[in-house]
Design brief:
Helices cover 32% and strands 16% of the residues. It has two helices and two strands. The protein has a two-stranded antiparallel sheet with strand order 1-2. It is rod-shaped and about 85 Å long.
Length: 97
């Protein structure tokens, strides 16, 4: 049996899962829908729902976290900004014409 809680919100959110496919339909003001979800988070009457929502937020945060850019390989022929007391010496010789 499904539990329902009614708050004064102008909008709706409906989610169904059929054969592993998640379908979400919602309408309304983003602030109002956010307030409705926040109400579910703090509702102490349904601990199971709090756990599900908490896990969903953690998964979503991990998915939305920016991926680290791959590090560029260091070029051993470049100084890479290292300061040295020795002057730079050119190692290439000029080609004869």
């Amino acid at each position: 049996m499904a539990k329902s809680k009614t708050n004064k919100v102008d909008g709706f959110f409906f989610m169904s899962i059929t054969n592993g496919e998640v379908e979400v339909t919602c309408a309304g003001d983003d602030v109002m829908l956010s307030a409705a979800f926040a109400t579910l988070f703090v509702d102490k009457r349904n601990k199971q729902l709090q756990g599900i929502l908490g896990t969903a937020v953690a998964v979503a945060a991990a998915e939305l976290e920016p991926k680290a850019a791959p590090k560029k390989k260091a070029n051993p022929k470049q100084m890479n900004g290292a300061k040295s007391t020795e002057p730079f010496v050119k190692t290439r010789k000029k080609k004869a014409k």
